[in-house]
Each structure stands twice: as C-alpha cells, then as structure tokens.
Amino acid sequence: MGRAPARNARKTVMTFEILLQTLASGVLIGLIYALVAIGLTMIFGVMDIVNFAHGEFLMLGMYASFWLFSLYALDPMFTLPLTVLMLFGVGVLIYKTVIRRIIDAPMLSQIFATFGLMFLLRGIAQFLWKPDFRSIENSIVNGGVNLLGIQLGLPQLVAGLGAVVVTGTIYWFLHRTKLGAALEATAADKEAARLMGIDSHKMFALAWGIGAACAGAAGALLSTFFPIFPEVGATFILIAFVVVNLGGFGSVAGAFIAGILIGVIEVMGGLLLGPQYKLAVVLVLFLAVLMFRPQGLMGKA
Amino acid sequence: MRTFPSLRRAAFGRVSPWLLAGIAAAAAVPVFVDSPAHLNFAILVLMAAQLGVAWNLLGGYAGQVSLGHAAFYGLGAYTSTMLLLNFGVNPWLGMVAGGLVAAVSSLAFGWSCFRLKGHYFAMATIAVAELVQILFTNWEFAGTAVGLYIPMSEQGWKFMVFSDKLPYYWLALGLLAATLGATWWIERSHVGYYLRAVKDEPDAARSIGINISRYKQIALSISAFFTAMGGSLYAQKELYIDPGSVLSTALSIKMALVSILGGVGTLFGPVVGSVILTLIEEFTRIFFGGTGRGTDTIIYAALIVAIAVFYPTGMVGWWRERVRRRGLPRGTSAGLKETDAKAMLPRSSSQGGAL
Description:
The structure holds two protein chains of two kinds. Chain A contains eleven helices and two strands; from the N terminus they run H-H-H-H-E-E-H-H-H-H-H-H-H. Chain A is mostly helical. Chain A has a domain at 29-132 and 144-233. In chain A, strands 1-2 form a two-stranded antiparallel sheet. Chain B is mainly alpha-helical. Chain B folds into two domains: 1-31, no CATH class; 33-253, no CATH class. The radius of gyration of chain B is 20 Å and the shape is globular. Chains A and B meet through helix 1, helix 4, helix 6, helix 9 and helix 11 of A and helix 5, helix 11 and helix 13 of B.
C-alpha cells in the first residue's frame, strides 16, 4: 500500500514530461502550419479566391530542396532563399496564366480552376519525379537537442524557427513597406486602391507570388524531416484551411496564432485519442468554428 | 403553386424529340454493344451521370456547392453492404435503407453547413466528408481500411449480383431514369420554383416568407438519397468497397465536375457531362495510364482547368449560347427559362476581406 503513492507520483511526472514534449512538438509543427496558412490567407484576403492548389506549392518547395540537395549537395537551409524565389515565380506564373482569367468568374469555376491546378501539379510531379517517397538524409540540421529537459529534433526546431523568421518578414513587409501597404489597401478595398493608382493586377500577382513563396518556404523547412512525394500537399491543405478559418480569412497575425493552436490541438488529440484521429479532432474543431464563429477567432464580424 | 397544363405540355413537347432519341439510344446500346469492356464503359457513363444528376439537385438547382457528396455515396454503399453481410438483408432493401440513412444523415450535414455561404459551405462539406472517411477507416465493424467483400455465391436479380455486365447496365439506366424523373418533377413543382428563388434572390425569397433552410434541406435530402443509392449500386457491381473507393474527396469532386462540365442547374447537363468526362477519363487511362507516371492525371487536370476557365457555363450553356448567337430557335430541354447562362451559377462575392 505504501508504495502506491510513489508509483503514482512517478507516473504523473512521466505524463507531465510527455505532455511538455507533446506541447513543444505541437508548437513546432504549428509554426509550419501557420506559414502555409499565411500564404493561403493572403491570396484569399487580396482577391477572395480560395486556392485549393496551395498544398502543391509546398510540395514543389520540398522537391526543389530535394533536388538541389541530391544533385548539387546544397543544403535545404542554404537553398531556402532560392526555393522561395522559385516558388514566387511559380505563383506569379499561375496567376498570369490561369487565375487572371477567372477573377470575375462564378465561384464554381474558381473552385474548379484551382482544384484542377491541384491535380495538374500533382500529376506533373508524378510524371517528372515518380510517385516514390523520398527523403533528405544527412542535412546539416540533424539529430536532437535537449532544451530544459525536453527532447526536440533539431530539424523540427530549425523549421519552427525558420517559420517564425519568414512570418516576421511577411509581417514587416505588409506593415512597414510601401508595396506591402499597397497590397493591404487592395485587400481592404479594391476599387478605392485602384483610384489611388494601385494596379490591382500587379497586387494580385504579388499576392500569388508571396502566397506560393510562403508555402515553398514551408516545404523547404519541412524537407529535412518529412517524406517528399507528389501528394504530400494533401496532408497540409486541409489543415491550412482550418487555420485560415480559425484565424479569420485574410488575417496574417490570426493565421500565425491559429497555426500554433491547431498544431498543439492536433498533437494533443493524437496523444489522447490515438494518432489515427489527429485530423478528425482538427476537422471537428473546424466545423465548430465555422458554425459558431464563421469570421474566425481574430477576424472581424 | 401549379404550372399551367398548356405550359407543361409546351415544355414536354420541346423535350420529347431529344428525350425519345435518348431513350432509343439507351435501349439500343445492349443490342449493338457486345464487348464487356464497351458495355462497362456505358455503365460507367450511366453511373457517373446519375451521381451528377443527384448532385445537381443541390449544387445546381439550390446553388449550394457541395464537395462532400462522397459521404452520402459511402453511406449508401456501406449501409447496404453491412446490412447484407451482417443481417442477410436483401440488397434491394439495403439500397433503399442506404438512401434513407443518407437522407437522415443529411439533416445533420445541412444543419451544420447551411448557415455557411459560398467558399465556406464548400470547405465545410469537404471537412464533413473527410470526417466520415476517417470514421469508416477506423471502424472495426465496417472492415476498417481493408474494406468489405460481397460474396458471389448467390446470383440473379433477387440478390442483385451478376457475373454478366448487362443486368448492371439496366440497373444503372433505371437508377438514372429514376433520378432524372425526380429532378424533372422537382423542377416543375413549387419546390423547384422556390429553389430557384433561393438561389438567385435569397433575400427576396426570405422577404416573401420562403423558409430558405427548409428548401435547401429538401434538395439536400433528395440529393443524398439518390447519391446513396448510386453508392449501393456501385457496391453490388464491384462486390468490394473500402473507404478509398466510396468515400474519397476525389469522388465528391467528380460528382460536381460531371454537373459543371455539362451545365449546372439543367436537367440533362450532368448526362452530357458524364459522357464527356468518362470518355476523357477512359481514353487518357487507356492511352497514357500504362506509363504509371500520371500522364492521364495531367491531361485530365489540364482539361478541368481549361473548362473552368473557358467554358464556365458548361457544355449545355455553351451550346445554348451558340444557338442563341446564330439566332435559331432554342430547342433544348429547359427552353422555358430565360436565364442568362451565367446567372445559373452561384456568383462569388467580389468583396475583398481585410488582410
């Protein structure tokens, strides 16, 4: 009888450690979700189009890192700026070739144009790089670190920090530069911005470029510890929708906070209900938010 | 509200040559088609058309773009199959039971999603369907991800299991006819008028006392019922179901795509769309599918994008536009409506949100 409390105490300590560990990994993956969602929310905020192909930008970012690593032995962390630039180009190109033509189209056409793009980019990836799972071994970010008793993977930690840096840059761009202000003005009121001499087509292209670049950056950061395959975007797009909704459509700061929140909720849900219900927990939350607070936690009514 | 008999006759009179030709063609297919592969193609067309017609009730007539209809399809397939395997319930009954289960489930679906509009509604329906898929993938009783097999031991019309393709052709044709009939009836009943009002002028509809949610729900329930029956038929035809084949988001998209390709909110649009889409699918699969490198996906996807960009009103809308431009009398099924082709589609709001 006397030993029971001691055993209980040890069990509690264990659970507490597991809890902390889980929380930390939830925050880290949440930062990546935030980065993906920021790109999505930006495109939606500026031109009111939901980009179903957003996960595929992330996939392209992962493959860019993978090929630069395996062909030229350049580490994903160093090629990050290059990946971001490439994806910016892809985003602008997609805007100019497809999205530009459907700005005033019925919502159904908009949904199906980006849905089609999603399948198209997946198909192209499968054609060029085969459906195999690939991974980057021996990146410079490797192994684990022990932070205050919590064991964390270095790749995850670096990815989380990288996501914070990129998000910070976007925030700075939107709030401290003239171009960012023009983008925000277009998001707030297209017509008024046009009257002030802001070319809305340029702003739309910019939003698609930055949106794709954010997803590309997330892909590059993920590439050191996540399997790379043509359909990898599917995992992230649903979660990105949830994050964008929770944060309020069009809100960068909202998406950042919501991303971390969703990361933690997902990981905790997995811990409590089993990993197969991770996504289910997030989706239930998503529906609840849609129903009771469609403007999101931080969005305006 | 009742339509005038003369008006009804006029509408029917205009349809009849096309309708008769369609019926004749459908009846002639088994006479001229010998090869099981070609008959199978015809069955695929009919089954996809039936799903498109069912989707169109909600997506086209009521203007609610659902991307989660696979949930109902899967419910139908699983209900009839699980009833058969566990309780020996006859598939004919199981099919109706599946339809009813889906129609009842659609109350929850509608309750949770109908207060949302446009993009939000579409995304919520994706989430609901994903949830259903996760549940079935992890549900022991439903065979988890492994799926369920229907035994071939008992065959014939009574058990809705055949080693031959032809009976499935008639079954698919019959189900399509029933779904078309239900849509045709709704289109001409007061529900159809209310649905059009709900879609085009929701505020005006509300102001004259139409209970918008109720009519959306009616459209959804009927749509879910027929979608689920399509799912049961699929299970009986393939004799195997798993979450990936009857609950996937790709399936929801296909149902919507068939309608969009043909023309949303038109009676026969989804049938036209199904013929085109199934042709594209099968040809790309035959010519490029063997490479295993996704060439068929690329062509399929490129066509989706092209259609979304260049033919936003679908083939029926495109055809009407062409006929109108030539100044010829219009002779398509819904000749009574003077709808601008673009107004048939729910429009996106053009307001930007705050960044």
